[in-house]
Structure formats: structure tokens, C-alpha cells
Design goal:
By secondary structure, the chain is α+β, with helices and mostly antiparallel strands. It has a domain of 103 residues: Ribosomal protein L16/L10 (Aldehyde Oxidoreductase, domain 3, Alpha-Beta Complex), CATH 3.90.1170. The protein has five helices and nine strands. The strands form three sheets. Strands 3-6-1-7 form a four-stranded antiparallel sheet, with helices on one face. A hairpin with a 2-residue loop joins strand 8 and strand 9. Keywords: Ribonucleoprotein, Ribosomal protein, Signal.
């Protein structure tokens, strides 16, 4: 059988090939200076990652239904969460501990942002609505389980900071924004600034009051007030011999 015949065009192509150590340079090259530098995008238009955790609802939900419970009472003299940490101004509860729903917190946040619209500021939330509330309805008889999920709430202790604001803002403007937000929330609130003294219970550590004085089991009275309570020795009748 005769060998296959190679076309002349293919033979001419192979004959034009040559081996060389130097890499051939392309004839037409585009200089780098003419290519515009495309900035790297900082925000992706599409992301498969999950959204950041929201303070109005826990990310993982609840594995077991939460009980009603009670708010934290700092019986040991804790002052945690009563001062401004990250911002310049804060909104602090001052009357009594209670539960605040996620809807009420969202309304208060929207009220503050609406009042400070157009201004540069940053808002911090010091509490999170991570406690579930379950109800059975008004026309359901007692028993047969805890009920179905109703809303998310936050247990807020007394003298707890709820919102903080940081930015180049006038103090009176922030006071007005917190006043409007306090009207939307249950309870009484006060305006605090960074550097204000902490609060133990409902007592502020100011005007000479220290933490040791509040933790003392017996109140320290002045000497004049203590001496006035002691009856004089001359007024007491002498015992018969």
C-alpha cells in the first residue's frame, strides 16, 4: 500500500517554521499608558454571602422557646452598660427595667435618622432583640403548649444605654432627636454624654458618691447627725442605790 500523500500547502507551512532561542516580538503592541486603569470595585454587584446580623432579630433564631423571664437586676453593684462607649451622646433608660419590642426599636431608630437627615453621623445600637415572645391568643383556653411565635423583644435593665451617636453634630440637635425617639419608646429616658459618671441601680456615682459607699451594708452618717440621736447622759435618771 503506498504511503499517504501530503498536500503541498501543509508541506509549505511546516517548512516555514524555524526554531529560535529568542522569543519573537509581536508586530503590533499596545502601549500600557494608553490602557485606562480600571479601579477595583469595593462593592460587588452580586454576592452569595449572607446579610450581616441584624439587631432586631437573631441570625440563627431560637432552638427552644424562650420563657418570659425577668430583666437583669444588678444586685452585685454592676455598672456595665450605663455609660457611653463608642459614640459622643447616648440615650439611657432611667425609670424601670422592661421589655422593648423590635418594632418599637425600629420606630425609634427611624425617628432619629429622620431628624438627623442630611447630617454625617454614625449610630450604635447597644441592645439586641433576641428574646422571642410566644402567645396563644385571646380565645384559646389555658394549657396545650406555650403558643406560637409573636415577636422579638429585648430585655432592657434600668439605666441601660440604648442608642449612641457619633459625628460632627450640635448637642441640641442630638437632644431633640433623642427626645423624639424617647417619645416613641415605653418608659422615661435621659440624655447622656461621653464621660458622664456611671449609674449603679438608679444612683449616679457623682457629687462625692463612690462605689464603695453604695456597696457598704450600713450607711455612713455624719458625726453631728449621729450624736443628735443619742440621748444625753444628764437627762437620764440615775439608778437607785
Amino acid at each position: 500500500m503506498p504511503p499517504p500523500r501530503i498536500p503541498s500547502s501543509l508541506l509549505a507551512s511546516f517548512s516555514s517554521l524555524s526554531l529560535s532561542a529568542a522569543r519573537p516580538r509581536p508586530a503590533a503592541t499596545i502601549p500600557k499608558c494608553t490602557i485606562p486603569a480600571v479601579p477595583k470595585p469595593t462593592v460587588r454587584f452580586f454576592s452569595a454571602t449572607s446579610a450581616s446580623q441584624n439587631y432586631l432579630a437573631p441570625k440563627a433564631g431560637e432552638s427552644r422557646k424562650s420563657r418570659k423571664g425577668r430583666c437583669r437586676v444588678p444586685t452585685g453593684g454592676s455598672m456595665r452598660g450605663t455609660t457611653v462607649v463608642w459614640g459622643d451622646y447616648g440615650l439611657r433608660m432611667r425609670d424601670h427595667d422592661r421589655r422593648i419590642s423590635a418594632q418599637q426599636l425600629k420606630i425609634a431608630e427611624d425617628t432619629i435618622r429622620k431628624r438627623l437627615r442630611g447630617m454625617k453621623f454614625r449610630m450604635y445600637m447597644r441592645i439586641a432583640a433576641n428574646i422571642g415572645v410566644y402567645t396563644s391568643g385571646n380565645d384559646v383556653r389555658m394549657g396545650k403548649g406555650k403558643g406560637s411565635f409573636d415577636r422579638w423583644t429585648a430585655r432592657v435593665a434600668v439605666s441601660k444605654i440604648i442608642f449612641e451617636i457619633q459625628g460632627d453634630l450640635h448637642e441640641q440637635v442630638v437632644r431633640d432627636a433623642f427626645r423624639l425617639a424617647g417619645n416613641k419608646l415605653p418608659g422615661l429616658y435621659e440624655f447622656v454624654k461621653k464621660g458622664d459618671p456611671p449609674v449603679m441601680g438608679v444612683t449616679k456615682l457623682a457629687n462625692g458618691i463612690t462605689e464603695a459607699d453604695l456597696k457598704r451594708p450600713r450607711k455612713l452618717l455624719p458625726l453631728e447627725q449621729t450624736a443628735g440621736r443619742i440621748p444625753a447622759a444628764a437627762n437620764q435618771p440615775s439608778a437607785p442605790l
